[in-house]
Design brief:
148 residues; alpha/beta
Amino acid sequence: MGSEKLYRVMLADDDPDDRDLFTEAINEYNADVDSVANGVQLMSALQQKVNDLPDLIFLDLNMPEKGGKECLREIRGDKKLKDVPVLIYSTSSSKKDIDETFELGANLYITKPSSFSELRRTIKDILDMDWSKDQPASNRNSFVFGAS
């Protein structure tokens, strides 16, 4: 499915190197990516694109001005945004962050891969998933991407 559909992806991450690597990796697949550097920019961009929302939002947790958890809370509380799949994309693998974002309604939790090839594989696997269901993870065990 990932190679057939053109995905519109939004990435919110304060690390410019991570944004560049993500963009380079996702451009190998059928996806357009817009990236922003913090949660304030993300929420502003989403409000401006309310009639042309992204298919997926990749959301870093620790960003200046407005963090990922606050953005997730706002997205899930907004009638126009609440159905957009939100994938947490963070260096943190702490149980507390995983539990909190699960409870806030994120669809998937991805710990940032440590190599570019792993990032490409992760993105491919995610784009190949069926996101048409638009529902937050109902099972805590399937919430963390790549966890066994």
